[in-house]
Amino acid sequence: MTPSNLEKMISEGLGRVFAIAAGLAITLMMVHIVVDVSMKHFLNDPIDGTTEIVAAYYMVATVFLPLAYVTSKEGHLVVELFTVRMSGRRLDLLTAFTGMVTLAYLLFVIYFTVEEAILRTRDGEAWETSVELVAVWPSRWLLPLGLGAMALVVLRQSIGRFRDGIRPDHPASPGI
């Protein structure tokens, strides 16, 4: 197994695992809300903390965990307004550059989300419900996990682009 295949397997495998976890979070969120609403209407006794748990855990997992998978499948929105006519060397250079900018931005955000997660973990962050407190500090770690996995995929893709080399420019075909 070549190093590039191993890198791809690790980054895409991690992306798949996190995407499955996000899918489970969506499913749990739906079940939790349906049970909560049912209990509220039929028994007049809703589940305490549903809003807090949905906001702190399910939604955060749903948004941040699948980022690596979406990145590995190149599923992010791409606006080609200025690059639609680019090809060859210029497009490869721009793609490599945007990969490095994305990686730098991700590392910046990861640093601050880890810092915040450490702070909230030390404080034992909890949100108040109508009856009790719900510990939400563990959910703070979902951001650096999801963003970190995405950063690994971006790093692997960028290394692959540089390893494969930049294509030479080809003359534009007549009529373009």
Key terms for this structure?
single chain, elongated, 176 residues, 5 helices, mainly alpha
Question: What would you note in describing this structure?
Answer:
The chain has five helices and two strands; from the N terminus they run ααααββα. It is mainly α and 176 residues long. The chain has one domain. A hairpin with a 4-residue loop joins strand 1 (126-128) and strand 2. Helix 1 (3-43) runs antiparallel to helix 2 (50-64), helix 1 (3-43) packs antiparallel against helix 5 and helix 4 packs antiparallel against helix 5. The longest helix is centred in the first third of the chain and has 41 residues, at 3-43. It starts with a helix and ends in a 12-residue tail after the last helix.
Provide a short characterization of the protein structure.
The protein has helices at 3-43, 50-64, 67-72, 88-123, 142-164; strands at residues 126-128, 133-135.
* Class computed from helices, strands and strand pairing: mainly alpha
Number of domain modules: 1
The helix/strand series, from N terminus to C terminus, equals: HHHHEEH
How many separate helices?
5
Give the end-to-end Cα distance, rounded to a whole number of Å: 43 Å
**Which stretches are low in confidence, meaning pLDDT under 50 for 5 or more residues running?**
none
Mean pLDDT: 89
Number of strands: 2
Biggest pleated sheet = 2 strands, antiparallel
Indicate the percent of residues in helices. Answer: 55-70%
As a whole number of angstroms, the C-alpha radius of gyration is 22 Å
Q: Spatial order of the strands in the main sheet?
A: 1-2
| Shape field | elongated
Strand content: under 5%
